[in-house]
Amino acid sequence: MNIKKLYIPLLAAGMLLGACSKEKLEPVPQTSLPPSEAFTTATRALQQLNGVYSAFKNGQFAGGRVLVYQDVRGEDFLNLTNNGVTAFLTWNFTVTPTANEVQNAWSAGYAAINRANVVIDGLANSPIDAAVRTAYIGEAKALRALSYFTLLQLYARPYADGNGSQLGLPLRLQAETNIGSQDLARSTVAEVYTQILKDLNEAEPAVLQTHANPTLNATRIHRNTVIALKTRVYLAMGRYADVITEANKIVPASAPFVAASGVPNQLLPSIATVFAPPYVNNEVMFTLPFTTLDLPGTQNGLGHYYNPGPNGNGDFTLNTTGNGIVANTTAWPTTDARRAFNIASGTSTFLRKWPNNPGSAPDWTPVIRYAEVLLNLSEAIARTTSGVDARSLALLNAVRRRSDATVTLAPATNADLISAILTERRIEFLGEGLRTMDITRLLQPFPAKGSVSALPATAPQYIWPIPNPELITNKAITQNTGY
Amino acid sequence: MRKLLLLLGVMLLSLQLLFAQNRTLSGTVTDDRGNPLPNVSVQVKGSSTGTVTGNDGTFSLSVPSNARTLVFSSVGQASQEQAIGNNSSFRVSLQSADRSLDEVVVVGYGTQRRREVTGSVARINGAAIKDVPVQSFDQALSGRAAGVSVTIPNGVLNNPPVIRVRGVNSISLSSFPLVVVDGVPVFSGQAGGTASNNVLGDINPADIESMEVLKDAAATAIYGSRAAAGVLLITTKKGRQGRARVNYDTWVGWTKAYNLIDMLNGQEYTDIKNEGLTNLGTPPVPAPDLPARGFFTSTDASGRVISTNWYDEVYRTGFSQNHSLTVSGGNEKTTYFFSGAFTDQEGMLKKNDFQRVSTRFNVDHKVNNWFNVGGSINYTNSDNRAPNTGSLPGQAFGIAGLGRLPIVLAPNVAPRNADGSYNINTVTNTIGQGNNRTALSFYNPAYILNENKFSSENDRVLANVFGSVKILNGLTFRTVYGIDNLSVVNKEYQAALHGDGVQFGGLVQNSQQTYRRWNWQNLLQFDRTLGSNHTVGVLLGNEQQSTFQEGWGASRRQQADPFYDEYQGGWNQIVPAGNFLGENYLVSFFGRVNYDYKKKYLLSINGRRDGYSAFAPGKKYGNFYGGSVGWLISDENFFQGIKGTVNNLKLRASYGLVGNNQGLGDFAYISAYNSGLYGEAATLFFNQAGNSNLTWETSKKLDVGFEAGFLNNRLNLDVTYFNNDIDNLILDDPQAPSRGIPGSVIANNVGRMVNKGLELTLNASIIRNRDFTWNSSFNITTLDNEVKALAAGNSDIFIATSGLERPSIIRVGESIGSFYAVRTNGVNPANGQRIFVYRDGRQVQYNHAAPAASRWTFLDGTVAPRGADQASDGVVIGPALPKWTGGFDNSFKYKGFDLNVLVFFSGGNYVYNGTKAGIRDQRNWNSSKEVLNRWTRAGQVTNIPRVVFGDNVSNGSAIIIQENVEKGDFAKIRNIALGYTLPQSLSSRLGLSSVRFYAAAQNAFTFTNYTGFDPEVSANGNANGGPSVDRNSVPQARTINVGLNVGF
């Protein structure tokens, strides 16, 4: 036999051994970083912090839907589209543990919490400047606190129900990055609030007083933001004295109401400019930025729900009949500039606070602004004083007269004052996600609207159920009563 | 020296040709049914003298006078020898090889005679699918082989079928078999976006010679790591010696949706919805009174009440045509096969089209007696165009899906206004609501069908080259290098005025996907017969496969002018879309030993070691093996007495361990941080929780069976028991959402599942007369699937349909994807309320008209503490996977006529009829005619609750209910074809060697009690965990086609 023929397979075998490269068995992803590289530079540390913001900003959470859910549970909106995917079930109080909003808001909220936990852990060992590290960790903690606070409003009974003794949330404070224990019972509402306040109290001295530019002051948490958030948290707990203590750090005793330290937060002269591009101003204390490359996602943007086509889907119109705030021209005269947001279209009136198309020209989503601090403080004073407190009334009128100089509110009694403040909140923060909190913190019923009847504070539907996936995987969890 | 010998040989041959006294033999070769067999090789035994038969099965051959015997052989037929004697005319009938022990069967990295095969291999002849009006060959495999279940999800063109070899073989990874074309594993699955694009549609069905399905460990272990879900080996046609043969095959066909459900007309809809409003306590209020509420008919220009049948706006009769031309031939050195084909198919849905242009060239060449080379090249362009069908996985709940729109849209409004413009409401981005005062939802399909467009186009080259060298007698080295280069362009345009495009101000999106693979195999094969009794075959091999995949693209938004509907037009924004980048690599070393003693006792052992890049370091390699034994009892002496009755009996058994990595992400094991944006700032975030122990899924396969032939193979029986024990299943281990792990899952080898069952195949040649033959083939497979272990303390896994409702559960002790629903107990005759059953057995009823807090009551009227829901009250209703599937294929032939009827059947399972929930929903959606039977008076017994406007609970939209879980048994006449072959005399007068006409129907009839469109359905496509879900998808298509096969 021809020996030459043996060369061919031998040659082939040789080539083959050379080609079985170990490298090809160890491909390195070109578009993601391994954990060992994730916190190694100042750039990456900052990007990690931004990652926590972006998780908080998820369109299923604070970037969009969670605001909608909290507002449409109230009486000021009517559902037009009957779409079970876009808050219809929330609006008419028929959500179940498998409803998509119940599942998605929970998951998105905890995703933000875990990102904060991962970054708090990761930054601790990151070789960056210590002061920067402290500030970043403070911001992450504030975001964690705000995420827990947001989830509490939907999934747990209000603090007022038994002083926080009801079931709250599972309190996850460790970075979860691997297969590990699933089970964690719900802490009480009070325990969760304690953690929220602990995070905010630690964040307050840690975060910067001001960031490098106005955009960052609007999109990143600074000291005044933390203080403002604390006024909201204390108000939700009914700890009015603490609201006053915190608010006083950034609200002077009398007009002009401008924060004395840090970012000079104040009311803008015109409400129209607060939510308009460039979205960056001294009234906005924290807002979530969107760009065409960073959209809230399909059916997530505020405008999707409230704008009629073509800039939205018009899922919800303003309730222009009965108890809808828009219908109340006595409390909210037609001379008020804030009515300019209410745009009639066909037979309906839509809220056009975020008039642009969230799929292509997304408006930014507000988190907290100075007007809220003023009204939080006004209410806290009113509730801790008798009669009509002058400073409380001045704060209230500061908000009212900014939009309607023809009116000066003059309630006759303490009760009238409180009522006027609550009404003012409905007008001022319409669509900004505060309505549920303003109803539940006072254990009021959700008022009737359209074909939906009123819901008493004792009804199980007063809060959402714990979502099904959590029930299945977390054996220590407890479902809310009635679900 | 060699050259000299060769020359001498040629000279001797020439001399023989010159001086031998030649004579001419002629004859006809048919199959056992009397059909002429083309391309049969006719050869003088022991010489190279030979020819092949023409399309009419005839041959003519000049042979030397010393020729003694003719050998007739053909792929798919058993070879036969005939003594020449004094005959000059032959009439030879070849035995179909599927009943023959001498059939050549393609196995992993080689071929075997059926007699020697001890693994479980099913063979499907290419001829069986050649003329079937499908887009890809895999759609034509339903019912054709035991153990191979093929479900067509719906009637969307080129939608990948669900193929399962002996059940679902994975939970998270792919259960689709590995597809190997001419020895090279190719890409399969869905590459399109909104337009379905099954990349197996790139293979022209007419190019396929045979398809082998490898089912057990003995057959599949040689594919080691990729074999758990079975292997589908495609062998394309090769040329044969003889003059060039030209064949032209064509058909034209008409396609329509069938079994559509009747919906309420305009007046009925109006009345039912108003009744619902009245029952809610908010009766309709005619204009101009306030509040604006209620449903009111409108009239068209001629004053008639508008009653739109929305099916007419969406469906059509699609026309299709198919043409295929092949040229093949060769001489003793070189054979070739060439094909060119074109198909242009319209689907039953408007704007759903499929076009394919393909060409293939296969060549084999014997350089000399020790060196062969050859190869093949196949280029295909496939263009898939579709509207948003709402029928692909993930689309079920889209409000633009064309499966859903015609069954939810209000029929009392028209698609167009009297002036011809679209009836749309641009404020709410819904259909215009005519005189209705309560708002309508959903888009106008007339607009989105006309304006929007989606396409997915492939350019693909499949090619391989091989060389084989005979080193020593019995020792051959073979090397094969193959590539699969697939380039896909997906395009999408959605207009700005109405529909899904509104939110983007109009959108166009183009993305380019590239899939590139090379595969190199080096095989050393040794075959030796030792003495007269021992035959040994040894295969040693190495295989490497490298796959690269990337996608990139962008979406442009904010249409500058409605004129622009292409990416390059005027748009104000650009956003990245469709980006991915990955690679993987597989290296393998394998071997196989076949041994037999006296061709009676057979043994085969194979082993393989695979390394795969996507597994964790230290866990990359897996070892796999298979072993099998066979015993040809019928060759034993003691058997000879009954050989007249049982002419063949073989027992076989196999066991082995194979693996699965198919469908695993390229970087599945790593923990990773990805980048994104927070406004304009860059982000980096924890994106994947990895698992440093991630490794192969494994499958232990046991297979025991026998094959028996009776009455000289007139009846053949094959019975096999199988048991696949699948372990280390990689699951997206569900993490408590409160852990905040990205996606709330971590991939982990935690699951275990068993598939066992029985396969039975019975082939019979029932009537075999000269003019009339009847052949019948029946197969049935039973399947018992049981999930044995799951992640995290065996937590149930719920499989969401399109991210929303979760009717399917993966639970230990149950069949995968069983239906999990709240039990229902009809409608309470007293008050017309749906009765639900708590898990503890207590019954509650639902009244949507009551205040929210008191909607749920016990049957005595007391308020229930909570509503029924799936988490608290769900129970397993039954399996979603069929317990039995099979086929019954009958062929009749009378003179020139042939009739083939293929019945496909399946059952023992349930189907979740989510579509039924939709067509009983009491929001503004339309309902089926059935809703006219709603409860209206006390004591009335009916299955439809009292209608209350807005009620989405009683019908099962908000909660998965048992009412919507139905038995899925069916039998379907998948294919029926009647053909006529012109008599030889006539066709030759036309200058043609054969002509056959035929007419055929696909999906002619379905026999079932299922109330939806069709129980053969899969809204979740090929997803393992959610089979038999029917949710808003289009029905199956019925196609009638007529065709022509011409041989020149």
Automatic annotation (TrEMBL), chain A:
Lineage: Bacteria, Pseudomonadati, Bacteroidota, Chitinophagia, Chitinophagales
Protein name (Swiss-Prot/TrEMBL): SusD family protein
Database matches in Gene3D superfamilies: 1.25.40.390
Domain (RagB/SusD): residue spans on this chain: 332-441
Keywords from the UniProt entry: Cell outer membrane, Membrane, Signal
Pfam families: SusD-like_3, SusD_RagB
Signal peptide span: 1-21
SusD-like N-terminal domain segment(s): 94-235
Predominant cellular place of this UniProt entry's protein: membrane
Family per record: Belongs to the SusD family.
Automatic annotation (TrEMBL), chain B:
UniProt keyword Mitochondrion, yes or no: no
Assigned keywords, A-Z: Cell outer membrane, Membrane, Signal, TonB box, Transmembrane, Transmembrane beta strand, Transport
Domain TonB-dependent receptor-like beta-barrel: 425-915
Membrane topology: Multi-pass membrane protein
Entry keyword annotation includes Signal: yes
A Pfam family annotated for this UniProt entry: Plug
Signal sequence coordinates: 1-19
Main localization (coarse): membrane
Family: Belongs to the TonB-dependent receptor family.
Protein name: TonB-linked outer membrane protein, SusC/RagA family
